[in-house]
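Objective 1b. Sequence-to-structure analysis of Ribbon-helix-helix protein, CopG family.
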Amino acid sequence: MDRITIRLPRQQVEMLERLVAAGEFPTVSEAVRYAVRELVSRHGDRVIRESDQVTSLKI
C-alpha cells in the first residue's frame, strides 16, 4: 500500500476523529480510504471515459 500526505482543515480532522470515536471506522486512515474509494467509484468511470476519448482524438 502506498502512502500519501494530505492537509485537511481542522474541522474535517475533528469530524474524522468523531467518526472513529463513534465506532463508524476503526481508524482515521480507514475513514479516509473509505472516502477515496467512494470518490473513485462515483467519478472514476467518467474520468476514464473522457481520458479514452481524448486519447482516441490524438491518434
